[in-house]
């Protein structure tokens, strides 16, 4: 009973099927026709520049040939039709008419140089003819494109070996189709895409592969993990060795960490890992974690700042941390060198300003004490605290609202009972010139209070008293009775009126005059103004 037949590198001139052949091969399990050369009349597409482009074939009555081979579980057809030059299977439809069910488990088509595989293969219009196939290999064949429909006949496919092709071209120019490559093969456990010039794998490439155990992407140009592996609960190996990975970013690390498979390992051997810049710190720290799934960490090396390869250890991490801290320390030093003088200068200024304020406050207090003493003694220009200038038309207002209240407030402020407010009617010497007497009284007063009203502006005596006080450089306070016609202010009055605070009276609904401050504040202001002249 024949179980294995190898026709590797055999030149076949003629093929005949007879009863003896059928009985001999009825239990055949493995058939090897690697590099076999068949007659062109048998396999017409096996000729130079052979192809199947935009064609549909129907092959009837193939049972005679396949009955002897129905038991085959492994079929190897490597280096088949080597005389062809980049054959194409593009938009090609082949339908076999048979009642047989294949037991084929393994199919090898390596080194066949099929650059494009766009083949829709059916049997009696049904695509389940090879649903028992578990392994399909087409490696080292310069394949640039595979239509996902070409793999749908392999419903039970578990191992898909596509290494050493050029599927990176498909990933680049036909990304959506490449992303759906495994759509019809949800049972795949192993996929080998090593050395395919792949730069990145689309995010959803492995979406339907919940049984995936081994992914080989070795020898490509991948720099980051761009695909989702979270749903692969049974994955064991993600081989990213010999790619272009210098450092895995946070997103790549999150993709790896999202997988909860207990036996999950990632291979990073042969990558140009970097430990030369501060940005590599988090990646190296992640590699050294006890929970990292990266395999063989003790043998991984990285390129350091001096372009030398060193083994990745805690010392590597410490050097990177120091590298990251140096700019911070340098920045802090610069900040300190800039801020320290500024702070010192600020402190000096604050202290100086504080001392100046304290000195000024002490001087003010000293002057106020001196003014209080002078007013209490009442000599020379301090006999009266204030000379009150007003028009006789406002006499009733003065004696009811101003004179008694001001006198009482000043006596209380200075702790004295002597008279402190000078009024012409009370203190002029009778029989003498009014102007002379007003000058005498103003000189004996520390400051002058002018009660401004429309009547005040109409009085020559009032205006003269203002002029006398102004010429003697006496401090002048304006008491303003109600609304006044500001256009009647003299130029000298207007300057003071615009620039100095005033004591205001306004009329309420009952035509009573209400002062808008307190007499205590007025008396304090009078004493402070007198102190300012010392």
What does this 3D model show about the protein?
By secondary structure, this protein is of the alpha/beta class. The protein has 3 domains: 46-300, Ribonuclease Inhibitor (Leucine-rich repeat, LRR (right-handed beta-alpha superhelix), Alpha-Beta Horseshoe); 313-373; 378-532, Toll/interleukin-1 receptor homology (TIR) domain (Rossmann fold), CATH 3.40.50. It has helices at 19-24, 63-66, 168-173, 175-179, 250-257, 281-287, 314-377, 395-414, 424-427, 434-443, 454-458, 460-471, 491-499, 519-532; strands spanning 4-6, 30-32, 51-59, 74-76, 88-96, 106-108, 116-123, 135-137, 145-146, 159-161, 190-192, 214-216, 237-239, 265-267, 301-303, 309-311, 384-389, 421-423, 445-452, 475-481, 503-507, 513-515. The chain has a 10-stranded parallel beta sheet, with no helix packed on it. Helix 13 (491-499) links the parallel strand 20 (475-481) and strand 21. Helix 8 (395-414) packs across helix 14. Mean pLDDT is 84; it is low at 42-49.
